[in-house]
């Protein structure tokens, strides 16, 4: 039951450190950078070189692509029904079509199922979520850039694309497959494992530190463009509809229970922080895009616990 306590404790600790002014304002960025450049790459290098590849890993990698593809259709028709602007529809698709499968998903699932779930989560995140954002996600974003920004699309697109393809965890993943050809010394493996173990508490504290809700004044500029309906429908899709859809599909396809559990819970993660940043930088409904990760995380805590309990009782 420790994981039921650790998640809210770490999130609250991060929030308290921020609100109490105990850590500097840039601490969220510093802690997040440590996770991206040290904790997550070390965890990948500690696990992937000795990973036993399984056929059903393909289903884990395909899950984010499937969820994102369905989200394009779902939010297209939702946008027509609620009369959203094009910018609203693209913002919701980018933010809620992809989940926070590494920064939050990895520590949460490691607490639910232990270290043995790490390989499955890494496959879903790096070959699934990350590549889905880098390819169809960016194509969608650049294709529908606001008209007054299209002349600057190269200035926006190239730096972001360069940043994503120099993403340390992804580079660590590629390098880890090369390391499979060699035997890693136990001393080096121990170093990777110890550094990788820092991911769970630091990542959750970082999310809590950066957690913020949009105030009423910041919403006034966007309230006329269906801020509430876009936020509610987007989170409803991401936290409930997507995991239910993945469960039904993977149960019908007879995917192994252990990988079905991972896929369903990863599908139900809060909106992806990186995708929200992309939406912000591209100019698609900035206040709405910024709200999705924080508010989504708050609502995802009970929904993830509910999904976890239902999956444990079903399988």
Q: Please give the radius of gyration in angstroms.
A: 19 Å
State the assembly state of the protein chains: single chain
Please count the helical segments: 15
Strand/helix succession: HHHHHHHHHHHHHHH
Q: What class would the helix/strand composition place it in? A: mainly alpha
Description:
The chain has 315 residues and is mainly α. Helices cover 77% and strands 0% of the residues. The protein has helices at 2-19, 27-47, 57-82, 86-96, 105-113, 118-143, 153-164, 168-179, 186-196, 199-210, 216-223, 227-252, 257-267, 273-282, 286-314. The longest helix has 29 residues, at 286-314. It is globular, with a radius of gyration of 19 Å.
Question: Which key terms come to mind for this protein?
Answer:
single chain, 315 residues, mainly alpha, 15 helices, globular, Mem_transp_PIN-like, cell membrane
